[in-house]
Design a protein that fits this description.
The chain is of the alpha/beta class. Helix content is 40%, strand content 16%.
Length: 287
């Protein structure tokens, strides 16, 4: 299994288009380390951690957002990553877990070498996110974010689209952003879910600026109309540059406001085919 996965990755890397093949001139637009969200390889990690990490290394990826696979300690996973030149600047945890025992999350994050901890889902009845959940999240995020900051970490909430439910003159995302303490609560923008939820990623980045510290890079299939469920079939996650998200404009603003960590997240079931295409697209972008 290990040999097969690594061989496939090396072949795909060899087939990556060069920047010249995009017929673009100028300086590279994407100038940050290549990063990946570990969820991209959710089907591979349980089968063979070593082979999956070798695959990630072969693609030229040097940053990962994620945690230790089941059955492995954070320290063990960090060493395996570091041996391959992969750092873990950010990790994630569940809402219930981090609100119940934030210090446990702090310990795991520090063992991984992470500086950021993100939560990607606020518990609610799917398709019915309301002010009740948003208000509770504000209270919990302020409390947890303070604990993390006191321990040298930054808390980030990762939007999932359902937060763009209309509220007063804006959305419930606006309510969360405007009522959380900037000293304790930051954000990670998932550009697919932002678009899918009906928001404009570029406008949102301009509006909240440095509140955004991290970014998930992914693209939504053309022609797909989003909604407020925070979900879409796997086949709607396409390689970067092939969907409806305006990635070049997003990257320009993201760089301007100071985002330094970007993680490609491929939620399709074709990650081995799509990841090399997404990487080639990023490398080919020019100013």
């Amino acid at each position: 299994m290990k040999t097969l996965l690594l061989s496939l990755s090396l072949v795909l890397v060899a087939l990556l288009p060069t920047a010249d093949s995009f017929a673009q001139k100028g300086k590279p637009l994407y100038t940050f380390p290549l990063g990946v969200q570990a969820y991209t390889y959710r089907n591979s990690f349980p089968k063979d951690v070593i082979a999956t990490l070798d695959t990630i290394k072969a693609l030229g990826i040097t940053e990962m957002e994620g945690g230790a696979p089941k059955g492995m300690t954070p320290e063990e996973f960090r060493k395996l990553c570091n041996d391959r030149g992969i750092s873990i600047p950010a990790t994630g945890d569940g809402y219930e877990s981090i609100t119940k025992n934030p210090m446990d999350v702090v310990g795991k994050a520090k063992a991984l070498g992470a500086s950021y901890v993100m939560v990607a889902w606020i518990p609610h009845k799917r398709g019915n996110f309301s002010m009740v959940e948003a208000k509770k999240a504000v209270e919990d995020f302020n409390r947890v974010g303070k604990v993390l900051k006191e321990n040298g970490l930054t808390f980030c909430y990762h939007n999932h689209g359902y937060e763009f439910q209309p509220h007063e003159s804006g959305t419930l995302f606006d309510y969360i952003a405007q009522n959380t303490n900037p000293d304790y609560v930051s954000f990670e923008m998932d550009i697919l879910w932002t678009q899918h939820g009906g928001a404009d990623p570029v406008a949102l980045l301009k509006k909240y600026g440095s509140r955004f510290k991290l970014m998930h890079l992914k693209d939504l299939k053309k022609g797909i109309k989003g909604d407020l469920t925070g979900g879409t079939p796997a086949e709607n996650d396409v390689p970067l540059g092939e969907g409806q998200v305006d990635i070049p404009e997003i990257l320009k603003i993201a760089k301007k406001i100071g985002i330094k960590h970007y993680f490609i997240e491929d939620e399709s079931n074709k990650e081995y085919q799509q990841m090399p295409v997404s990487i080639a697209y990023l490398k080919g972008l020019r100013k």
